[in-house]
């Protein structure tokens, strides 16, 4: 036995080292894009945010002299307009950076334009899956799936912007796979 191998005397347990070339990769995953209706919900949310900000600044304009002095200058509108336009381009990049991939034993979700993140979740760790929709998502018939594993009260993975049908089918698929994995684990543990 090598010094990197672990063996417990009197049991079948071994823990052999894994070669670097034997590690599974996620580089070749084909990520499915989120619903094309997702960008509309983000645009509407952005318009609402900009309108609320505009109303707030307008109210301050009437009550505070320094705000009136700054906002009444023509040069004030140029950076604000540029910022509004850039925010809509940014939202497009955010949507394009998100997606999910489904494999036989796990699901993956990627996001991030500058700071990229990928969450991978094996089905045998999934305890339950919730589907939720806020009022705007319901208008566009979209939902968000939240995946929970044991030991946590927060979702370990969230996949937004799934159509109602796709979200329901994906939820059922993951729960079926999780139940099958738990059943096969129970049988293998009970048999030894």
Q: Descriptors for this entry?
A:
192 residues, alpha+beta, four-stranded antiparallel β-sheet, three-stranded antiparallel β-sheet, 9 strands
Provide a descriptive summary of the structure in words.
The protein has 5 helices and 9 strands; from the N terminus they run E-E-E-H-H-H-E-E-E-E-H-E-E-H. The chain has 192 residues and is of the alpha+beta class. It has a domain at 38-94. Strand 1 and strand 2 (14-15) form a beta hairpin. The radius of gyration is 25 Å and the shape is elongated.
Topology:
Layout: E1 6-7, E2 14-15, E3 32-33, H1 38-63, H2 65-71, H3 74-97, E4 99-102, E5 106-111, E6 117-122, E7 126-132, H4 135-139, E8 142-149, E9 157-163, H5 164-191
Antiparallel strand pairs: 1-2, 3-4, 4-5, 5-6, 7-8, 8-9
Helix pairs in contact: 1-2, 1-3
The rough form would be described as elongated
- Main sheet characteristics: 4 strands, antiparallel
The residue-averaged pLDDT reads 87
Q: What's the total number of strands? A: 9
Q: In which order are the strands of the major sheet placed?
A: 3-4-5-6
Low-pLDDT runs = none
- The SSE string, one letter per element, is EEEHHHEEEEHEEH
The helix-and-strand class reads alpha+beta
Structural Rg:
25 Å
Number of helices: 5
Helix content: 40-55%
The end-to-end distance, rounded to whole angstroms, is: 24 Å
The fraction of residues in strands falls at: 15-25%
């Amino acid at each position: 036995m090598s010094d990197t191998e672990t063996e417990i005397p009197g049991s079948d347990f071994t823990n052999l080292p894994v070669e670097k070339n034997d590690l599974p990769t996620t580089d070749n995953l084909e990520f499915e894009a989120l619903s094309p209706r997702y960008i509309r919900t983000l645009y509407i949310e952005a318009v609402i945010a900009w309108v609320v900000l505009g109303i707030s600044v307008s109210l301050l304009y009437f009550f505070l002299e320094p705000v009136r002095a700054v906002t009444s200058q023509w040069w004030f509108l140029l950076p604000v307009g540029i910022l509004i336009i850039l925010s809509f381009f940014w939202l497009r990049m955010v949507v394009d950076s998100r997606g999910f991939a489904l494999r036989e034993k796990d699901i993956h979700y990627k996001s991030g334009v500058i700071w990229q993140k990928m969450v991978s979740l094996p089905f045998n760790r999934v305890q339950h899956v919730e589907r939720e929709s806020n009022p705007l998502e319901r208008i566009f018939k979209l939902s968000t799936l939240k995946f929970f594993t044991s030991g946590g009260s927060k979702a370990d993975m969230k996949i937004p912007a799934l159509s109602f049908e796709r979200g329901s089918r994906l939820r059922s698929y993951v729960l079926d796979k999780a139940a099958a994995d738990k059943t096969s684990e129970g049988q293998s543990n009970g048999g030894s």
